[in-house]
Amino acid sequence: QEGVRADIALCQALKETGFFAYGGDVLPEQNNYCGLGATGNKVKGAYFALPREGVRAHIQHLMAYATTRRPSLPLADPRYDLVHIYRPDIYGNIKNWTGLNGVWAVPGTSYGQDILLLHREATAPDASDASLAFAEKKVQEKKDAAAYVYRAIVQEKRGAHEKAIADLEKALALSPKNAAARYNRALLFAAAGDEKRAKDDLETLVKHHADFAYAWYNLGVMNLSAGKNAIAMRDFERVLALVPQSANAQSNIGVALVREKRYKEAWRAFARAAEINTANPTVLMNQIIFAACLK
Fold first, then answer.
1. What 3 state SS string does 91-102 have?
2. Phi and psi of 22, rounded to 5°?
3. Of 274, 276, 279, which is closest to residue 291 (Cα–Cα)?
4. Measured between alpha carbons, how far is 39 from 180 in angstroms, rounded to an integer?
5. What is the pLDDT of residues 84-123, one digit of tens each?
6. Angle at CA 293, nearest 5°, toward 291 and 295?
7. Would you place residue 295 in the very low, low, confident or very high pLDDT band (cuts 50, 70, 90)?
């Protein structure tokens, strides 16, 4: 209706709300799907009477960044004119999703990339012959990093791990800082039991993309498995700083605290994880096991 990509806007909403699990400053009943007016320090931001109104405000706020054309529907975004008046450097000048880095979210150095990664995951191919044929076509036509990453995902799903790694290495040769290529290769190394190379890839990834929450989470899991509890807790704290809705990260902090025999802090960590997601089975299991051990 307004010329904004609804599919990628949805991915932005998934990032902002933690897949609609919330857990940060914004509450579900606000119908605020993009953090409008939520500036941290418990500032909850805008409230909208209906979900449709909240979606409309989100789209209109994106318009304020991307175009000087006014929305065709009545204005729902309470901050639209603020962008127009106080940020002429931004108003209508952001033409790419990665242009939102450090603007929509601060510091948000890879904010746009995270949104596009979610979109890439949502549109990822399957293991079918049709997907492979399409992937081959993409590589022949473009021979860019994205095409090789796409074919690598198909190959991995078809069980051709060596071919997948070869494609990811071609992608990284073309674009050494390509987050998707680095992350997928780390996962392949980890699946093959090569933890050293997996960890090297993840550490390189967060060096170039400090806001890549998935990489921090996987680093935390690896450090926790290696008994490096303090380092693992720092990794999971980085995840929570980026994605406050990550109940698993909070629960893993509890596990690390148990291993450090800091039991009171561990119980509080598990309780916080349960507050974030009351239905997470891993969180509930950890609480039950810990309570049983205390008895």
1. CCCCCCHHHHEC
2. 55, -140
3. 274
4. 29
5. 899 999 999 998 898 898 888 777 777 888 898 899 888 8
6. 70
7. low
